[in-house]
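Okay, is this right?
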Amino acid sequence: MNTKTSTRGRTFIGIVTSDKMSKTVTVEWNRRHYIPKYERYEKRRTKVKAHNPDDIDARTGDKVIIMETRPLSKTKRFTIIKKLGGEEAEEAPAAPKEAPKKEQSAKRAAKKKAAPKKTPKKKAAPKKKAEKSEQA
Protein backbone atom coordinates (compact mmCIF):
# COMPACT_ATOMS: atom_id res chain seq x y z
CA MET A 1 0.00 0.00 0.00
CA ASN A 2 1.21 3.48 -0.83
CA THR A 3 2.26 5.27 2.39
CA LYS A 4 2.74 8.73 0.84
CA THR A 5 -0.96 9.26 0.06
CA SER A 6 -3.67 8.56 2.61
CA THR A 7 -6.50 6.43 1.23
CA ARG A 8 -10.09 6.41 2.33
CA GLY A 9 -13.44 5.55 0.84
CA ARG A 10 -14.29 3.03 -1.84
CA THR A 11 -12.12 0.33 -3.40
CA PHE A 12 -12.46 -0.96 -6.97
CA ILE A 13 -10.85 -3.60 -9.19
CA GLY A 14 -10.27 -2.60 -12.81
CA ILE A 15 -8.04 -2.88 -15.85
CA VAL A 16 -5.55 -0.22 -16.89
CA THR A 17 -6.54 1.04 -20.35
CA SER A 18 -3.96 3.82 -20.76
CA ASP A 19 -0.58 4.59 -19.19
CA LYS A 20 0.57 7.41 -21.50
CA MET A 21 0.47 10.09 -18.78
CA SER A 22 3.22 10.73 -16.28
CA LYS A 23 2.48 8.91 -12.98
CA THR A 24 -1.19 8.59 -14.01
CA VAL A 25 -3.20 5.75 -15.56
CA THR A 26 -6.75 5.34 -16.77
CA VAL A 27 -8.57 2.45 -15.09
CA GLU A 28 -11.82 0.99 -16.42
CA TRP A 29 -14.31 -1.54 -15.06
CA ASN A 30 -17.76 -2.76 -16.09
CA ARG A 31 -20.89 -2.56 -13.96
CA ARG A 32 -24.60 -3.32 -14.28
CA HIS A 33 -27.17 -0.51 -14.02
CA TYR A 34 -30.78 -1.35 -13.15
CA ILE A 35 -33.59 0.25 -15.17
CA PRO A 36 -36.80 0.15 -13.08
CA LYS A 37 -39.17 0.82 -15.98
CA TYR A 38 -38.08 -2.30 -17.88
CA GLU A 39 -37.03 -4.29 -14.79
CA ARG A 40 -33.77 -5.19 -16.48
CA TYR A 41 -30.08 -4.39 -16.28
CA GLU A 42 -27.82 -2.70 -18.82
CA LYS A 43 -24.05 -2.82 -19.09
CA ARG A 44 -22.17 0.36 -18.29
CA ARG A 45 -18.50 1.09 -17.79
CA THR A 46 -16.64 3.45 -15.50
CA LYS A 47 -13.35 5.12 -16.43
CA VAL A 48 -11.31 7.02 -13.85
CA LYS A 49 -7.83 8.49 -13.63
CA ALA A 50 -5.64 7.02 -10.90
CA HIS A 51 -2.21 7.82 -9.50
CA ASN A 52 0.41 5.28 -10.56
CA PRO A 53 3.16 5.16 -7.88
CA ASP A 54 6.73 4.40 -8.96
CA ASP A 55 6.89 1.25 -6.79
CA ILE A 56 3.80 -0.27 -8.53
CA ASP A 57 4.31 1.00 -12.13
CA ALA A 58 1.16 -0.50 -13.72
CA ARG A 59 1.03 -0.81 -17.51
CA THR A 60 -1.79 -1.11 -20.06
CA GLY A 61 -3.69 -4.39 -19.62
CA ASP A 62 -2.77 -4.89 -15.95
CA LYS A 63 -5.50 -5.73 -13.46
CA VAL A 64 -5.24 -3.40 -10.45
CA ILE A 65 -6.94 -2.50 -7.17
CA ILE A 66 -7.56 1.23 -6.77
CA MET A 67 -8.73 3.14 -3.71
CA GLU A 68 -10.25 6.56 -3.25
CA THR A 69 -8.00 9.33 -1.93
CA ARG A 70 -7.95 13.10 -1.57
CA PRO A 71 -8.03 15.08 -4.86
CA LEU A 72 -4.57 14.81 -6.40
CA SER A 73 -5.40 16.93 -9.46
CA LYS A 74 -8.42 18.22 -11.40
CA THR A 75 -9.44 14.68 -12.47
CA LYS A 76 -7.41 12.33 -10.23
CA ARG A 77 -9.22 11.02 -7.14
CA PHE A 78 -7.89 7.44 -6.91
CA THR A 79 -4.55 5.75 -6.37
CA ILE A 80 -3.37 2.24 -7.24
CA ILE A 81 -2.73 0.21 -4.11
CA LYS A 82 -1.96 -3.20 -5.65
CA LYS A 83 -1.25 -4.76 -9.05
CA LEU A 84 -2.98 -8.12 -9.52
CA GLY A 85 -1.37 -9.06 -12.83
CA GLY A 86 -1.96 -8.84 -16.55
CA GLU A 87 -5.19 -9.09 -18.51
CA GLU A 88 -4.38 -12.72 -19.40
CA ALA A 89 -5.01 -13.70 -15.76
CA GLU A 90 -8.57 -12.40 -15.97
CA GLU A 91 -9.50 -14.09 -19.25
CA ALA A 92 -8.08 -17.54 -18.42
CA PRO A 93 -11.06 -18.68 -16.28
CA ALA A 94 -13.53 -17.45 -18.92
CA ALA A 95 -12.57 -20.19 -21.41
CA PRO A 96 -14.21 -23.13 -19.54
CA LYS A 97 -17.48 -21.18 -19.23
CA GLU A 98 -17.84 -21.07 -23.02
CA ALA A 99 -17.59 -24.86 -23.45
CA PRO A 100 -21.12 -25.67 -22.16
CA LYS A 101 -22.60 -23.18 -24.63
CA LYS A 102 -21.17 -25.19 -27.51
CA GLU A 103 -22.75 -28.36 -26.10
CA GLN A 104 -26.11 -26.60 -25.85
CA SER A 105 -25.87 -25.38 -29.44
CA ALA A 106 -25.10 -28.96 -30.55
CA LYS A 107 -28.23 -30.16 -28.74
CA ARG A 108 -30.31 -27.46 -30.39
CA ALA A 109 -28.96 -28.43 -33.80
CA ALA A 110 -29.91 -32.08 -33.14
CA LYS A 111 -33.45 -31.04 -32.20
CA LYS A 112 -33.77 -28.99 -35.37
CA LYS A 113 -32.67 -31.95 -37.49
CA ALA A 114 -35.13 -34.27 -35.77
CA ALA A 115 -38.08 -31.91 -36.28
CA PRO A 116 -40.09 -32.57 -39.48
CA LYS A 117 -39.58 -29.98 -42.15
CA LYS A 118 -42.57 -27.99 -43.25
CA THR A 119 -43.08 -27.76 -46.98
CA PRO A 120 -44.05 -24.34 -48.25
CA LYS A 121 -47.56 -24.08 -49.63
CA LYS A 122 -47.87 -23.17 -53.26
CA LYS A 123 -49.90 -20.13 -54.03
CA ALA A 124 -52.95 -20.75 -56.17
CA ALA A 125 -52.98 -19.10 -59.57
CA PRO A 126 -55.26 -16.05 -59.72
CA LYS A 127 -58.70 -16.86 -61.04
CA LYS A 128 -59.71 -15.26 -64.30
CA LYS A 129 -62.97 -13.43 -64.27
CA ALA A 130 -65.61 -15.07 -66.40
CA GLU A 131 -66.38 -13.02 -69.46
CA LYS A 132 -69.89 -11.80 -69.64
CA SER A 133 -71.73 -13.10 -72.66
CA GLU A 134 -73.46 -10.54 -74.73
CA GLN A 135 -77.20 -10.74 -74.46
CA ALA A 136 -79.28 -9.05 -77.16
Helices lie at 87-91, 94-114. The CA atoms of residues 14 and 29 lie 5 Å apart. Residues 7-88 form a domain with the OB fold (Dihydrolipoamide Acetyltransferase, E2P) fold (CATH 2.40.50.1000). The first helix runs from residue 87 to 91.
